[in-house]
Amino acid sequence: MEELHDPVSKRVGRVLRKIREEQGLTRAQLSEKSTVSERQISAIELGEKGPSLNSLELLLRSLGASADQLFYPELSENDPTLAEILHLAGVCNAQQKRMIVAFIQMLQAEEYGEKNSNLRWECCYIAL
Q1: How far, in Å, CA of 103 to CA of 86, rounded?
Q2: Are 107 and 115 in contact (CB under 8 A)?
Q3: For 6, which DSSP code?
Q4: Helices (H) and strands (E) in the chain — how many of each?
Q5: Using an 8 Å Cβ cutoff, are 73 and 8 in contact?
Q6: What is the 3-state secondary structure (H, E, C) of 86-124?
């Protein structure tokens, strides 16, 4: 998973480079497909500068990638457990989805030793 504490421009550059390399594209080929200069692509990938919104859209569309891959890379990781959770949650009704969210929030609160995590268990049942 990408480090969330890194500056956004560095994370974006790393992810764009990873996607480009996975597709076997050179910077020159991506430049030709996207109309973003090879020099600009290099600067973005190295985290020297962040892309403009226009350049970001051109690059993402040329790579067939979504913004989620940049800003939520954990969602695109090949994690079978996460895929199973998404599959199971996808067929739940609205109340069940709220219960899932409340349960995950409670688990995260316990993981980080948040005070009143026992209260979270109770709220999980009461809120739903």
Answers
A1: 15
A2: no
A3: S
A4: 9, 0
A5: no
A6: HHHHHCCCHHHHHHHHHHHHHHHHHHCCCCCHHHHHHHH
Token pair recorded at residue 57: 């859209």
* Dihedral class, residue 113 (left if φ above 0, else alpha if ψ from -120 to 50, else beta): left
Residuewise pLDDT in 10s, the chain (128 residues): 445 556 888 889 999 999 999 999 999 999 999 999 999 999 999 999 999 999 999 999 999 988 888 888 777 667 778 878 888 998 999 999 999 999 999 988 876 665 555 555 555 555 55
The closest alpha carbon to 47, from 19, 69, 17, 68, belongs to 17
> According to the model, what pLDDT value does residue 81 have?
83
Burial (CB count <10 Å: 0-12, 13-18, 19+), residue 18:
middle
Burial label for 53, CB within 10 Å (0-12, 13-18, 19+), is: exposed
